[in-house]
Every structure is written in structure tokens, then in C-alpha cells.
Amino acid sequence: MAKRFRFLLLDADVVIEVWRRGAWRHLVSHGEITMVETVRDEARFYEDADGNRHEIDLAPDVASGNVKIVSVALAQIQQLIESVPAAWRPDMNPGETASLAWLLSQPSEPAYRLCSADHITFRVLGMKRRSEAGISLEEILAAIGRVQPDLARHFTRKYREDISRQGFADGLQRD
What we know:
Distance between the termini: 43 Å
Strand order of the largest sheet: 5-2-1-6-7
Structural class: alpha/beta
Radius of gyration: 16 Å
Number of helices: 9
Order of helices and strands: EHHEHEEHEHHEHEHH
Largest sheet: 5 strands, parallel
Mean pLDDT: 91
Number of strands: 7
CATH superfamily: 5'-nuclease
Helix content: 40-55%
Number of domains: 1
């Protein structure tokens, strides 16, 4: 039986890739999906292999409660930005920054998992000693029975683990 995820927070790149692969309905049926407003606004369309544009319509899943949209206070975002090295800040886009700020402001239980493909997400989680809060698209798809051997590197478990370790080491140097 495929795993059912609870407390899964998605970044826009993951939403777009899951839609592009035709796995969105399957993912939604296997978990409680949460995303910040910024991610909802960023994940508007994807392009298929032929370059054709396809709209992403999250409204029915939001209306049905299958996808929960959460807000992030500007103060939470600012606090996160100020807590990371200045050299990292240009790599932080609005969606992943808001997702990280929201995740890091939540109590440790229930344990949300943030799925992203952006290196800065996993690096920040590593630096903050929260690597366990990250999860790759590869791990999610495998858990729900939709193994995809042709995923780009930044969607893989190995990438997540490597970047998280790098962030952890960076955090140790800052202490």
C-alpha cells in the first residue's frame, strides 16, 4: 500500500513538476497538501515536452480542502532572511522563502515536510539543523508508488541530502 503523507508543504517547482508528469491527482489522493499563498500564485502553468503551455488549476483542490493555503507574516519572512548569510540571500526566491519562513515558524509537532528542488531550501534547513524537515520529489513519488527514474538531479534524494549536509556544515562554521 502506498504511503499517505500528512503535513506535506510543497514549493512551486515541485507543484509544476508533479502537474507536468501527470501525477497531481495521485499525489493529492495520498496526502495532506499545504502551500503558502506565494507558491499558489507562482504555480500557474507548466510547459510540456513540445513547449505547449498548460494551466495549473488548484482552485478545485483548495475548495475541496485537499490543498490548504497558508499565509506568512512579513515579519516571519524578514526574520528568516536576516538569519541566513548575506551571500545566500540572492538565491532565495519569494515562494521558497515564504515556505521556509512558514515551516520554521511551526511547532515541531506535527512535523511538516517541505518538498522543494531549490538548493537554498535544503541548505537553509541544514544550517538550521532541520534537515529532516526536507523531502525530495523522488522520495514522495516513490512513497506513493509513482517511481520516476528520469527525474532531474535537483528533484532527487541524493541532491537533498548533499545540499542539507553542506548547509549543516555551514551552520557549524557560523556557531
